[in-house]
Design brief:
single chain; mainly alpha; 434 Repressor (Amino-terminal Domain); elongated
């Protein structure tokens, strides 16, 4: 058996739970389409055990296989939006924190940089 990377064995519990839920959702979507694991694996160009690991929430399944599975099921539309800047509340908060305290100070700083 292959040795697991630390990143896989040290996953935060919430991340592992989310992966398992995502895997279950993919399995449900596949079954709703009345597609066997074997047929689904063939469409993804992966083995049946890989599909089984994907549906089980195994973190070692590549992001490419995950994205392909979502595409094959017609569920890929929101994939690029997962980490979009618009959804990054922490990043937005940090940006706001770094804004100048007043417009006057910002204007003065800009004038000093112009010369």
């Amino acid at each position: 058996m292959a040795k697991k990377a630390k990143a896989q064995t040290a996953l935060p519990l919430k991340v592992q739970e989310n992966l398992e839920m995502l895997g279950r959702n993919i399995e449900i979507a596949r079954k709703r389409r009345r597609e066997s694991q074997e047929a689904f694996a063939a469409r993804l160009y992966v083995s049946r055990p890989t599909v089984k690991r994907l549906e089980g929430g195994d973190p070692s399944v590549s992001i490419g296989v995950l994205a392909s599975a979502l595409w094959a099921l017609g569920l890929h539309e929101g994939l690029a939006e997962l980490a979009s800047p618009e959804h990054d509340r922490i990043g937005q908060g940090l940006t706001i924190k770094d804004l100048p305290k007043s417009a006057r100070k910002a204007k003065k700083d800009k004038m000093e940089d112009d010369f």
